Amino acid sequence: MYAKNIWLDANEEKVNSIMEFCEKYKEYITVGKTERVCVEESVRIAEEHGYKNLKDVSSLKAGDKVYLVNLNKNIVLFNIGTRPLKDGLRILGAHIDSPRLDVKQNPIYESRDFALMDTHYYGGVKKYQWVTIPLAIYGVVVKKSGESIKVSIGDDANDPIVGISDLLIHLSGDQLQKPAAKVIEGEDLDVTLGSMPIKDENAKEAVKANVLRILKEKYDFEEEDFLSAELEIVPAGPARDYGLDRSMVAGYGHDDRVCAYTSLRAVVDVEKPEYTTCCILVDKEEIGSVGATGAQSVFFENAILRLLSFSNEDSLMNLRIVFENSKMLSSDVSAGFDPLFAGVNDPKNAAYLGKGIVFNKYTGSRGKSGSNDANPEYIAWVREAMDSNEVHFQTAELGKVDQGGGGTIAYILGNYNMNVLDAGVAVLNMHAPMEVVSKADVYETYLAYKAFLTK
């Protein structure tokens, strides 16, 4: 059903299903503040649905459900279909990294009786949005011994929060003359950790020393261990219902965990597929899909080769055949139409909250630079899958031509000669600490992914 409002079509049973599904989604996004935690939650959900670690499996047959984790920051899941792997897979691919502030390797310093933590922002952010809001610290600290210590400060009801200060309005005359990109500089996104000095006459930086004492008592690591830490500063607090009608969800990381969760749930909820179904959740999309845990890694290739090895078909040629015969939805969000900023969109080709999953034939910027630009034959195939299952969908571009743009992982998988189309949820406030999605779109995207997997 093209570009129709879901709420107008939904009966009481459908509305109840939407609300129930989104309660589980809110739990996922509240807990999953980092890629590592998203992987942990995804493993938990997969194992609840009968999935086993592929490394622990000695044979594969139709109906088997397996997963594989890469460096604690990627996960891929397969439900083995009745058709041979070389007939291709049905793939849903999303990313689980989100814009944030990363803690530097030598982060803690003292200035004028404050202990502060130095950060480097990750991904595309409006830096001024990250000041004067409650923030939490998540991640791992790895000691030289190899011991990995999980850190989580700011989301438990008994935890303190941290934050970044801003200049009071009374003294901000000069600051307010700066362009928005310069109001808060990247090097000024330093997190306040404390102001209480340790009672030690020999301490040179008594406030910093007190903070380090607290971390040592709680987590048992030294300042030097920050050298091998991966700590992220993220918004504190749970995902919440948004709007008096509770029709939306406000929270951190909808981009792209809303598509990650719906993709994951679609794969684990489909039983006995004809084609092997796959959900892959990757890292580093916000900075170019690079590195060992980004979509450009060979992790996905290696996972397919593992599957092929069970039938002694793990050759490079067979791998290429699998990819060439596969179909994929690049599960990523789209920019929701905001009536307060209508001028950045072409209204005929914009994504609207409440009208279902959004298909982007192409993303990119300017002259479609960096886009995948899906083939019309494949789009027609996807349209038929949606209509035959009465799924609400819409099509969109990411803003007016030359207004800006963005990209996804679609082009990377398209390099394998695979049919790929961007498909996901419309989001307001994208890349802000608080993003907003329609509950109806979240549930409808889940239904859309299921329809895709079973066609």
Describe the structure.
The chain contains 11 helices and 22 strands. It is of the alpha/beta class. It has 2 domains: 6-98 and 252-453, Zn peptidases (Aminopeptidase); 100-235, Aminopeptidase i, Domain 2. The longest helix is centred in the N-terminal third of the chain and has 20 residues, at 12-31. The protein is globular, with a radius of gyration of 23 Å. 45% of the residues are buried.
Q: What's a quick, concise take on this entry?
A:
The protein has 455 residues and is α/β, with parallel strands linked by helices. It contains 11 helices and 22 strands.
Which key terms come to mind for this protein?
2 domains; globular; 22 strands; Aminopeptidase; 25% strand; Aminopeptidase i, Domain 2; 27% helix; 455 residues; alpha/beta
